[in-house]
Amino acid sequence: MATVLAWARSLVFALWLMVTVIPWALYLLSVSLRVRGTPLWWVAAGWLSVAIWGARVICGVRVRISGRENLPLGDINPTVLLLKHQSTFETFLMPTLMPHPLAYVFKKELLSVPFFGWAMGRLDMIHIDRSQRTQAFNKVVAQGRRLLAQGVWVIMFPEGTRIPRGQKGQYKSGGTRLAIETGAQVVPIAVTSAKCWPLKSFILRPGVVEVSIGLPISSEGRKPDEMMQEVETWIEAEMHRLDPEAYP
What we know:
alpha/beta; 7 helices; 7 strands; Glycerol-3-phosphate (1)-acyltransferase; 248 residues; seven-stranded mixed β-sheet
């Protein structure tokens, strides 16, 4: 019975996303003809807040945050956010929590997703062709440097893709390389989203998604691999602390 109810709630949530994203995307596309940059970002973030509200009200997914005081202060404080990636949930959630506009680094194929992808294409983010690694990273650095200087924070998933609950992917050093190249600091973030929205699952389960924000890590005088090792060690230790049931 609980599974049937969770499935039904998840279906309503999927319909909620569909019904709200279409008019919101059309509105963003029309606004983008006159407005770009930060104001347009907050238009997009408004829909993400609606999506997270829907997950809470319809599916019972709540969020508990710790370490918010660790977020850097100031209008321009170049920062790269490096997150654990378990679900679509944190991609929706992070812009609703952060005091700065965010620029995701994402594969260009997402731009072809109807409405959602079209709206993303109007935002100032970093879409890359993963088949051309050198050119892709050069683009990340060039655009990342410009965005960071404007007060936009860059957000990346160092494992590259969503990882099942209780598992660890290979942490790649692209995020720390970007931070070192641009002089930005890195903020590691652990997220237990798979407790409520597992990988490749349609069903959202009621519960609490824990978000833990770590202390900023300076990139000055660092090497990409050893800096990423510090990020990986902190995130994985925090994941074990926040979700011990997933790590026997």
